[in-house]
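Q: My labmate handed me this sequence with no annotations at all. I'd like to see what the chain might look like in three dimensions before we decide whether it's worth expressing. Could you predict it?
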Amino acid sequence: MYKMTNGDKIRQLNNEELARLIYGFIVTSKNSTIFKQLELDEGQEIENTKGYKLLLETFNEEVDYE
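A: Here is what I predict for the chain of 66 residues:
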């Protein structure tokens, strides 16, 4: 087992796995409040949005992978 960030793991996915991940996210979130929680605002700089910061934090999180 070794540590890597979620972003490192995502970069290892092939196109089929990546498509499945993105599609799964869309399907599971379409009826949820996740988009409200991300506070999407086209008027803000991307780097200042809550959603961007949350995604960046998730990608930078270190996780144990086998």
